[in-house]
Amino acid sequence: MSKATYPLKLPSSIKVAAARLAKEDGVSLNQWIASAVAQKVGAVETAADFFRQRAGNAQPEELHAILACAPDRAPDTGDERPRSDPD
């Protein structure tokens, strides 16, 4: 496995927490951060694959056709957009 270096700047509070967790796990801070990054990469790639498969061959035009069939009425109580939302 090849390794690359990357200068990482963390807020002090995050570094302290990560160092504490690494110590609790009995690993170096570098190893703990590498593992955390690997977990995040795996989660993001898994989610992307899931949504890609879920979408299949769907096309935006198909969604527009479905939305065009929705009734033109006010939202139910509690489903309104907050007034601060831009139109």
| End-to-end separation | 50 Å
Shape: elongated
Average predicted confidence as pLDDT: 92
Low-confidence stretches: none
> What count of helical segments does DSSP give?
3
How is the main sheet built? none
Query: What is the radius of gyration?
Result: 23 Å
Tell me the strand percentage band: under 5%
Please provide the count of β strands. Answer: 0
- Quaternary state reads single chain
Describe the protein.
- By secondary structure, the chain is an all-alpha fold.
- It has a domain at 12-68.
- 57% of the residues lie in helices and 0% in strands.
- Helix 1 (12-25) packs across helix 2.
- The model has no long low-confidence stretch (mean pLDDT 92).
State the gist of this model.
This protein is mainly α and 87 residues long.
